[in-house]
Sequence to fold (98 residues):
Amino acid sequence: MNRKLMPVAATALLAALLAPGLALAQARNANVWDGRHHEPEAGAVRADERAAGIALSQQQQAEQNQTLDQIGRQLTEKAQRDAATAPPQPRPPNSSGR
Fold:
């Protein structure tokens, strides 16, 4: 083979070997991989649960939401209490060195 063609042939071979991997990397975009969602969306999950017969009833969902709201309020109140009793933050030294 001609010595001038060797680098061209090596580059072409390398490009041919890397092309499938590059195409796969470009197929992923946020929540979409190869044109399909790879993380389920809430609506799709609920529809699948209803179809499988394992979805929560409206009463169970309301109870769950009430429990989660209560936990959220408790955590917010605790964070406020903790912030009120936390020691003051250290003051940065002043620029004059005193």
In short: Helices lie at 5-27, 42-52, 58-85. Strands lie at 28-29, 32-33, 36-37.
